[in-house]
């Protein structure tokens, strides 16, 4: 495996399957039943130059749960990039302090540029509208885990992706990952001007998947196994695009859509954050508590998957079980009050 995780393009099917298997072995630690110190002494540098809750905190928590420590910086204001320091210099400096680095940056390609200056593993936590490979891995892990629970095969699955497919980096990485698996049916539903880039549609179609584009969720959809909805990435809009833009309610995934168009075991996923302001028309809160809503199981899966990424890149994946002991503190059976009992 490449020393860095910058794009899902660098991962073979075998490497992806290995990461998912390592993630499954991390579950007892992620679920706070066991403790390991396999990364004791190691230091992670978390550099976030764009807003983040999940990626920043879960990479941090994953490293800590492996026994390591974390140093972080958020925003340009508190980094010396505000004084004009280059990605190259920042990278070399951070490599002298840290054993692994996670970076999120608003410009596509910037994390790869940063990684080119260091031999310390660098993970892309999101580079502008480019990619978000760790999110795609946790999305795939979620789909695989939920399908196993539901007794469904991934081969032939019908995945519907909706929302901002143009700027949504999570769907860019996810569609590429899914394309490495047995042929599926992929339906893409985007508002005008926010369609999935053509090169990704061509790539997925060339790998034998059936890809269809629709312009509204009001169309007829049959046998949808996964609805993957995304937030409109307004922070990437030009001033012209922002002017007067509002997302029609036709793109909202809610209970009515699910009851009308989907089955009892359709999964609803979203990389989050969902924009909960009413005018945003993002994923509706009326599905909260519905077992089909997998969004918080998805965020929980960020921990074992990110632990697996660290353990694999830092080559301790074979040592995890040697170092386990039971936790000693109180952990509630369900961490969320509305968590579905499956
Ligand atoms: N959190 C995801 C990302 O950073 C999705 C989003 O922000 O809408 O790409
Ligand atoms: N899914 C995701 O990347 O969330 P954050 O933007 O909160 O990190």
TrEMBL record:
Domain of life according to the entry: Bacteria
EC category name: transferase
Annotated signal sequence range: none
Enzyme Commission numbers on file: 2.1.3.2
Xref: PROSITE patterns: CARBAMOYLTRANSFERASE
Record-linked InterPro entries: Asp/Orn_carbamoyltranf_P-bd, Asp/Orn_carbamoylTrfase, Asp/Orn_carbamoylTrfase_sf, Asp_carbamoyltransf, Asp_carbamoyltransf_Asp/Orn-bd
The protein's name: Aspartate carbamoyltransferase
Natural source organism: Halomonas cerina
């Amino acid at each position: 495996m490449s020393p860095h995780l910058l794009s899902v393009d660098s991962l073979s099917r075998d490497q992806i399957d290995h990461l998912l298997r390592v993630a499954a072995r991390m579950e007892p630690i992620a679920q706070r039943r066991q403790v390991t110190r396999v990364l004791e002494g190691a230091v992670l540098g978390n550099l976030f130059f764009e807003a983040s809750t999940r990626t920043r905190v879960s990479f941090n928590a994953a490293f800590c749960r492996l026994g390591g420590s974390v140093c972080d910086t958020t925003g340009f204001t508190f980094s010396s990039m505000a004084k004009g320091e280059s990605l190259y210099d920042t990278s070399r400096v951070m490599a002298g302090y840290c054993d692994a680095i996670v970076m999120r940056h608003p410009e596509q390609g910037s994390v790869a540029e940063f990684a080119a200056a260091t031999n310390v593993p660098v993970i892309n936590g999101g580079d502008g509208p480019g990619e978000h490979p760790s999110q795609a891995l946790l999305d795939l892990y979620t789909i695989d885990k939920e399908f196993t629970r539901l007794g469904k095969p991934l081969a032939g699955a019908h995945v519907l992706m909706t929302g901002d497919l143009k700027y949504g980096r999570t769907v860019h990485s996810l569609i590429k990952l899914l394309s490495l698996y047995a042929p599926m049916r992929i339906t893409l539903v985007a508002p005008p001007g926010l369609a999935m880039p053509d090169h990704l549609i061509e790539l997925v179609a060339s790998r034998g998947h059936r890809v269809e584009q629709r312009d509204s969720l009001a169309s007829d959809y049959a046998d949808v196994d996964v609805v993957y909805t995304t937030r409109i990435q307004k922070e990437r809009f030009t001033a012209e695009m922002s002017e007067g833009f509002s997302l029609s309610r036709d793109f909202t995934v809610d209970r009515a859509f699910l009851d009308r168009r989907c089955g009892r075991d359709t999964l609803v996923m979203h990389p989050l954050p969902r924009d909960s302001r009413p005018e945003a028309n993002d994923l509706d809160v009326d599905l909260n508590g519905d077992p089909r809503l997998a969004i918080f199981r998805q965020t929980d899966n960020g921990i074992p998957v990110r632990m697996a990424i660290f353990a694999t890149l830092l080559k301790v994946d074979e040592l995890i079980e040697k170092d386990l002991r039971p936790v000693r503190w109180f952990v509630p059976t369900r961490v969320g009050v509305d968590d579905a009992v499956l």
